[in-house]
Design brief:
The chain is mainly α. The protein has 4 domains: 142 residues, HUPs (Rossmann fold, 3-Layer(aba) Sandwich); 120 residues, HUPs (Rossmann fold), CATH 3.40.50; 52 residues; 92 residues, Arc Repressor Mutant, subunit A, CATH 1.10.10. It has 18 helices and 12 strands. The chain has a 3-stranded parallel β-sheet. It has a 3-stranded antiparallel β-sheet with strand order 4-5-8. Strand 6 and strand 7 form a beta hairpin. The longest helix is centred in the first third of the chain and has 17 residues. Bound molecules: glutamic acid. The site of glutamic acid has 9 residues, from strand 9.
Length: 434
């Protein structure tokens, strides 16, 4: 039996990471098994599934390189087929008409009334529910439109889906879905319900907790490969201590056996760290393109003050965590008119002796025969020894010349900024300090 899985989102205009995580797991499973990964757009809610919402969905899939192996299926195109199955179910006695709640006549699916409903979930193990705890449910509304449960199952049957991998908010539905499969005389697929994604408090992760939609991560400058890698680890681990893995490594290692049933905590710090690792390894030309785009979007120059963009990017690229940080972290290398961050100014500059220290170093830097990494380092070290630590010199100078508290190694940074500017900035900051 060759594996056929699908991602079956209901487009709403935003793609939640919990949904796309299901796509990632399906995609990896198909690729690992040499099976097929399909896309079915569950677009029957015509108010929400607008052409723009569908476009957003397809763009997210493309951005994450979740390619699918057959033309996308649009559920709304299958309504006639859904209703034909509904009629068959009615003819065979699996469904009946009823005026539910006085809202007009609906078609209702009959659930078993006795015994226990069971299914084996590939993640959660054996699940069961007493028939008496289930209820008959609507499969065709009084306006003649098929309900999710019916459309979802009929399409899975028609598409020959072998494994349904989806979020565990669907576990309860699965008891219903299996009964529809049986009534249709179709063998139900295997099911794997993925653990819920939760915030630090263990509650379902939502947009109140921070970025929750794929588009937001893209906007903030996360790389698709980093987000992909991170999403795989939300509920799955390779069984060893690897975390950063290429697509190929993930395809080879992925199996449903290692999917965890306990909730997966969304840790933005981990994603940010991972993203930094991916950015550090990015080809320079790709990074440069994004760098320039972000600088331009912030209304900044793209030629650095020293005229050598590559020399600037050498220490900046490996320190970039997300693209959105680029303008704020680099502006001082592109213009003399850069802001000073309040926190490092208060912590590093507004201290006794700092104004004198900065003036002293402006003079010392000016007097150096050559303004090299070695020469500035020696000056700072000598002074640091007298003051009982290099930090007392390094931090104020860094803030003075860059306006921020973090960045490339100080001596490399001084060389990038150049002697004249370093001296001028030290003197200017001395005014702020004093
Ligand atoms: N459209 C449903 C959802 O997005 C489908 C779930 C599924 O069967 O995968 O929740």
């Amino acid at each position: 039996m060759s594996v056929r899985v699908r991602f079956a989102p209901s487009p709403t205009g935003n793609v939640h990471i919990g949904n796309i995580r299901a796509a990632v797991f399906n995609w990896l499973f198909a690729r690992h098994e040499g099976g097929r990964f399909l896309l079915r757009v569950e677009d029957t809610d015509l108010e929400r599934s607008t052409p723009e919402a569908i476009k957003t969905l397809l763009e997210c899939m493309e951005w994450l390189k979740l390619d699918y192996d057959e033309p996308a299926v649009y559920q709304s195109a299958n309504t006639v087929r859904h209703l034909a199955v509904a009629s068959e179910l009615e003819a065979k006695g699996y469904a009946y008409r009823d005026n539910k709640g006085g809202e007009g006549e609906c078609l209702i699916f009959r659930m078993p009334k006795e015994g226990t409903l069971r299914f084996h979930d590939l993640v959660k193990g054996d699940l069961k529910k007493k028939a008496e705890d289930t209820q008959d449910f609507v499969i065709v509304r009084s306006d003649g439109t098929p309900v999710f449960h019916l459309a979802n199952v009929v399409d899975d049957a028609d598409m020959g889906i072998t494994h349904v991998i989806r979020g565990d908010d669907h576990v309860e539905n699965t008891f219903k879905h299996i009964e529809i499969f049986k009534a249709m005389g179709v063998e139900p697929p295997a099911y794997a319900h993925l653990p819920m994604i939760v915030n630090n408090q263990g509650k379902p992760y939502s947009k109140r907790d921070g970025a929750a939609f794929v588009g937001e991560f893209r906007e903030q400058g996360f790389l698709p490969d980093a987000l992909f890698n991170f999403l795989v680890l939300l509920g799955w681990a390779p069984g060893d201590d690897r975390e950063i893995m290429t697509r190929q490594e993930l395809i080879e290692a992925f199996s449903l056996d290692h999917v965890k049933s306990s909730p997966a905590r969304f840790d933005i710090k981990k994603l940010t760290w991972m993203n930094g690792e991916y950015i550090a390894k990015q080809p320079r030309e790709e990074y440069k393109k994004e760098f320039i785009a972000r600088m331009q979007a912030a209304g900044l120059q793209t030629t650095p003050l020293n005229g050598d963009l590559d020399a600037v990017l050498d220490p900046i690229q490996p320190r970039t965590k997300t693209y959105k940080d680029i303008p704020g972290n680099c502006i001082y290398l592109f213009t003399d008119d850069f802001p000073y961050d309040e926190a490092p100014v208060n912590k590093r500059l507004k201290k006794d002796g700092v104004a004198e220290l900065l003036r002293e170093f402006a003079d010392k830097f000016e007097a150096l025969p050559e303004f090299t990494v070695e020469a500035t380092e020696k000056l700072v070290k000598d002074k640091g020894e007298k003051l009982g630590g290099m930090g007392a010199v390094v931090h104020p100078i860094r803030v003075a010349v860059s306006g921020v508290g973090e960045g490339p190694g100080l001596f490399e940074l001084l060389a990038l900024i150049g002697r004249d500017r370093v001296c001028a900035r030290c003197r200017k900051a001395a005014e702020m300090a004093g």
